[in-house]
Design brief:
- The chain has 129 residues and is an alpha+beta fold.
- It is built from three helices and four strands; from the N terminus they run H-E-H-E-E-E-H.
- It has a four-stranded antiparallel β-sheet with strand order 1-2-3-4, sandwiched between helices.
- A hairpin with a 5-residue loop joins strand 3 and strand 4.
- It is flat, with a radius of gyration of 24 Å.
Length: 129
């Protein structure tokens, strides 16, 4: 699988080099496709020591702080949104684009609510040496 991806990347790179060389021979400017960097969105459960940050986020959003366990969204390492797993209330930074992060939080909170809360039983398998 990786070798196929590497081959495809190498072929695209070679094709880009050929286009660049052909454009420079013609004297035409080379137009490169500049892609916007994408933000990294991370979802995780809030730690107990992050209650101050959640309270600041709630104040920024003019809402009450969340109660109970919360799921938070970090965009490039910055806390931008959170959802309460107790009542589903969402708080978000009004100064940052948080639409995608909120949608991800709501989807993940629904997934966690559907999952049964029973302790996992370990299964032991016999292994032969």
């Amino acid at each position: 699988m990786n070798s196929q991806i590497n081959l495809q990347i190498a072929q695209e790179h070679i094709a880009d080099l050929h286009r660049s060389a052909a454009a420079s021979r013609r004297g035409a400017p080379v137009i490169e496709d500049v892609k916007q960097p994408t933000a990294v969105i991370a979802l995780r459960l809030a730690w107990p020591d992050e209650s101050d940050e959640l309270a600041e986020l709630a104040a920024l959003d003019s809402q009450r702080p969340l109660r109970g366990h919360a799921l938070i969204a970090l965009v490039d390492g910055k806390l931008v949104a959170a959802i309460s797993l107790l009542d589903g209330r969402v708080i978000a930074d009004p100064l940052a684009p948080t639409g995608e992060a909120q949608a991800l939080l709501e989807t993940r909170a629904r997934q966690l609510a559907l999952r049964p809360r029973r302790p996992r039983r370990r299964r032991f398998r016999l292994r032969f040496a």
